[in-house]
């Protein structure tokens, strides 16, 4: 037993050293731009777990002055380090939380560590009943404090956006609104696409996918093993040092299960749990996010109940649009959303229900996404075949179907899908990539998807995008085994034959007017640089297929 734990701890320490070596040498905690009061507390969860909280109050505010509360519940806010970045100055971890904006506006900002992380006791359970209980406990605790008005709004990106959605799922007393950006909505589809492992980036060295999703559990255990600082309280230090071996074993076994129908994964899927939700949600998702891909988040969005929900969908990565989106109005809308729903102030939230950033750098408003006038255009693709060879190159690795040059501008908005018959070994995969091919043969990836080969038919649901395609360009479809920097796949080295392949393209039937201010995002520039390839003209030979695309000359 001792030997097994020692081996695992050594593996975790090795991974920590690897991440530390990859982190910028000058990385330090991001200081807040406003003065604040800081205190700490421990919260008793129903099962006896003790949750650590950092409480930030506007400077000079008396203890008995009640304020609305913004809450982030997180696995990432240890006092010693934020993810792989050492926090040399200590204190509460507030990097990327926009806590200064909320403090200026008169909110108390509370950060609570999930069980097993930071200064909290217990075992992490990756979005399971323990973590959902932690979120409910944290909200109700914050709402009941003498310095709270009783109204709590949750804010976060990524895992911290996921915990906000857990709040919506548990509906704790006092939860007034949630802002969740790039959230996990279904942890299975976050790690696996139809049982095939996603690859995550190697940031800060590279954004290219290099880390298979099977390592995610180990990486989270590494974060959970972050020690306390010497100046932390004895209880914080004790909880940070204690992570029982049984936590490790079960966590690793569950998070490496590729079966999306297991009880573990079904229990953690928030899409059905949030169906009909009426608590106001401000949801954000980047179409070019390398981490939480634009996939089932739209199932969640379109399953919400009535309410003053709001969304931003556009061309950015794993972040909010606080900066690097060319949009000066994101923070204004975010603060107004909290002021209205959490602080109870008599303000209107500016902007449309849905803000959409198109891939051409223009911005528009929508009332639904995918938009209501989208039609799904069926396209019969060419039959063909390839060898499931993985990293090994070869002339038989792919085949293409390509449209004629478009007679007029077109606009894809939604999630394309492909249904096909693929004959080959069950451990082979079929990947589909959709391209925008310019007249100079430069082809840019629009979106992609993958599925295992097997069964009578194979369904491949591609990621979502909102992408205008200019007249004179072509739409290209590449069918292959795998995209090596996107998915992790052990090849079968066997031939796969594809027949009766049918693509469905979600295309707007009416033109759109760019009615919102905004510019080209950093995400668009990166995507064009990294996802554009020169296409051999020979690829187009005998590859043309008809596409009966909408006539979009009429106005909306």
Automatic annotation (TrEMBL):
Keyword Signal among record annotations: yes
Domain of life: Bacteria
GO molecular function (one): dipeptidyl-peptidase activity
Keyword set includes Transmembrane helix: no
Keywords, alphabetical: Hydrolase, Signal
InterPro entries, sorted: AB_hydrolase_fold (IPR029058), CocE/Ser_esterase (IPR005674), Galactose-bd-like_sf (IPR008979), Xaa-Pro-like_dom (IPR000383), Xaa-Pro_dipept_C (IPR013736)
Start and end residues of each Xaa-Pro dipeptidyl-peptidase C-terminal domain: 335-499
Coiled-coil region(s): none
Residues making up the signal peptide according to the UniProt record: 1-29
Pfam family, one: PepX_C
NCBIfam families reported in the protein's UniProt record: CocE_NonD (TIGR00976)
Protein name from the UniProt record: Xaa-Pro dipeptidyl-peptidase C-terminal domain-containing protein
Organism field: Nocardia tenerifensis
